[in-house]
């Protein structure tokens, strides 16, 4: 297990390095680095001083090393717009994105697993066919448009839910009790108002994943139900509930958890769209705003952070997978 | 497949036009699904509308001389200012006929979607063939690149590229191609690896045919079925992704509005209840994507050799 | 029927209603299994022997259905029982062992989970007692260090060991009847022999009746008391094993015996039954075997019934092997 872990960590390190190189080349070599890094208002002397200070007169590979060294120290540059360290900007907005992504994942499992299970157990019933047709629609619907329609129906027409923003937030890691809801990391899901604000964005972001979970679960159930061990479990006189929820479900959970886990990264990435629709102040909205005003240090910081997140998620999913599936666990022990 | 078709059909079918060619069998199997046929018909209509937009649209929505700002944000069914036609789907803030806007928008969405899918297909399929046929280090390098790319979601890759290159139609196409080529490469490589072990490739090699000829004339045609399925699905994905990028303001410029930009345009008016500016372009987008996906689903069933009996 | 019969199947018919038509997988099958006796159910794949086994346990899945006949277990008709009552019997008084040991144990559950759940499904005992029972049974089927093995996952066992675990699970409640569906086919010959010997010992000591489904006549010869030969969903011949194997009455049985390689002389070409098993979807009228039968005659175009041709020895044939062919011609 340790050998496996170390090997995976080294692999991950290589991917981070490769991605940092791509981002570096993308931002520093394709664009004009002077324009990117130095405020357009600076005069000639300032510019030259800045070029030297930033090491832009050095060869490209040395610049990359400097970039890498700074990045390792947590310095990914300062935002032109906010005049704050880009990294801090991203980290401030990360909780909003994370709670949205986790909320959506939770919803996807909560809705997708039972529907997929039902559709798999009774594949020919009209309800199952409706579920499957719905899942095709879920794959085809453009997320941003669905978001707009949700706002139109539930916020504008019916007035049930707030249309945009994050609502009231509450601090957990700050000083609860002394200065409630004002310092530390802010979370929406801890207040009623915040939850109301979160419902539509979370559903919107979950839409695609719900379809995915339904399809995966259904396919898994149908495949597993044909296995001898399910018939054997029935031949042992177990109750249908035990056969379904222990023998079938545990086998399905492995691929579903793997995919949903791997999809967490893509959920975070796709929250860019949902955040823009619902004006949810997360890192996705920040990156879109930053691309629009060419605030490149923030773009670089976002890309590096999200790459790190992806690699972490992949690693965690792999490890969880090996915990869930005894066969994988043993193979890895062997190698 | 062609061998068995000729072998079975020739003696049984005296009339020449009844011979079951692989293509005919493909058509009849595809037509077995009524839903897929519906998808095909709907998509054909959409494509025709997009092609003929300049001739059938009530107005040219981008000819400012034809627009009347006084007609801005009119409800669907309103009569236009100069009393010549009705705004069936209403107008946007510029007084632009939404129906015409959608017709022109479809042109751009389909062109960008199909165009990028085609380029990605050519690039990806070539690299996939190369990886499978040459193997060794070439294969490793190409497939590592594919793996790396596919481990990141499409929207992130597209965002990254647009962040580097800036906005614009060309850049969107480049971004879509970079997002998509890996799917084609992986699919073609997978099929080609199986096919290249077949006797007909050995035979071609024994004839000392040039490598490019074996790759493109012998190997590629046999990799086509999965490629067609992937290409269909990827066109739908490309259209959806382009719409998303345009909605985010990173895609096509305002002078060439695709469906995504039309929807974004209506965003601010929706809160005041003027739903049609965003609603109808969204429906057009949805119908386009669903019709392509329905065809793709059936194509996958028909062209999947594993489901053949 | 004798008072000692554990199971009596009468005119069982199990059909599958597929889109292509009705598949008569089991069509008019009757046999009796006495207490403590072993019935060998022999046939090629697709002859309906596995479906017969599943019918006894009430595990026939859609689109299949028992459409006729009776399955009397100690005189009670299983086909009329509710699913709830059947569940109480399954794994408890009637157990089943499957063909492929690699597939019968759930790969993601530990062996103890899979055994304990079986105990708890039928007995109100504590988990500890259930574990005790599981351990004892594992020891009984010859698994060394059962305590350790309980904590393992199926993939950590060899094929033979897995089949022993499956047998142990079947034995947990000391059932009166075990349906064993080719349980040794997937195993090495030596392991096959060990398992056969142990099963035989268990059957004779505990009084458990066995239906041993197989296509291997040599297994039947060594293990079974009675044998029923199935062809295309029907029992074509049944009787005491010595009689059926020594003096087969049905040409199909004779063909099967003739095609066992060890019976052929060295250097002679191997004998085989010509043709293929017919599709159950469109069985020709009359005797299903007539297209492959060397003795077939016009009379075979009508459906033969099963007749007792010797005491206790029945066959479904107009021109059985003990009559000269000229009679029909």
From TrEMBL, chain A:
Residues 94-317 form the ABC transmembrane type-1 domain. The keyword Signal does not apply. InterPro entries: BPD_transp_1_N, MetI-like, MetI-like_sf. Belongs to the binding-protein-dependent transport system permease family. The chain crosses the membrane at residues 12-31, 100-121, 133-156, 195-217, 252-279, 299-324. Gene3D superfamilies: MetI-like. This is ABC transporter permease. It comes from the Bacteria. The keyword Cell membrane applies. It is found in: Cell membrane. It is a multi-pass membrane protein. Keywords: Cell membrane, Membrane, Transmembrane, Transmembrane helix, Transport.
UniProtKB/TrEMBL annotation, chain B:
Gene3D superfamilies: MetI-like (1.10.3720.10). Keywords: Cell membrane, Membrane, Transmembrane, Transmembrane helix, Transport. It is found in: Cell membrane. Its main location: membrane. Residues 106-296 form the ABC transmembrane type-1 domain. The keyword Zinc does not apply. CDD domains: TM_PBP2. The chain crosses the membrane at residues 35-57, 108-134, 155-179, 275-296. The keyword Cell membrane applies. Pfam families: BPD_transp_1, OppC_N. It is a multi-pass membrane protein. It comes from the Bacteria. Belongs to the binding-protein-dependent transport system permease family. This is ABC transporter permease.
